[in-house]
Write a structure and sequence with these properties.
The protein has 241 residues and is of the alpha+beta class. The chain has 5 helices and 8 strands. Strands 2, 3, 4, 5 and 6 form a 5-stranded antiparallel β-sheet that branches. The radius of gyration is 33 Å and the shape is elongated.
Length: 241
Amino acid sequence: MKYLLIIIVSFGFLACSQVEKSNKLINKSIILKITGEAKVQPNEAFVNVYLKCINKNIAKSKTCLIKQSEELKKLFKSYKIKQEDIVTNNIAQSKEYRWHKNTYKFDGYKSATSMSIHIKNLTVLEQLYTKLLINKQIEIGNLSFTHSNLDSLNNAAYLNALDKANIIADKLLKSTQATKKEVISIKNINIASTPPIYDQNKLLETENNIDKAKEVKEKTVSIYNGTMQAQESLIIEYHIN
């Protein structure tokens, strides 16, 4: 009976030792999903312009359009916009009609083209945009903003996500018995950049200035270009002990 008791106690100590070793081998980790942000002021813009000429002589309609296009390119050149930053579409020609006294009347042949202009120096944008507005032969399409180094903006958003994750992980450590953390895995979820964010009051101010510029020939339009924002998400796993 004495030998049996010794054997049982020995097995009890062995079992406790195995449980303690097992607890030490358990991997403790924290997994965080964090979204980082980065903001920057745009430094470039794209504007689309539409040209058209209507004449009952098809050849004169086309000649008129070519002349307008050349004059417009000279305007862009005066603002130091390079030829490679001007993309011109092919000339499209069609018949133009207007509704008059319950019937369609032939107005002439319409020759039309559109241009996309890449403006790399935003300091000239307000003056150039005003010149385009007061030209009755030109219709302005979309005006959009971008940045010359979007990759840098996205990278800054990733770093912001990592900084946020480290701060949260440190706070979580304080609520546990662990004292150290180590990053063992980082995965990016998706890439989601947002267009410029506009302040509504300033946007309305810009629209009002555009309307006034159409009435006052030499008035300069004040344009608010907003703020570009990139958002990037990471899943970060920490080993803690």
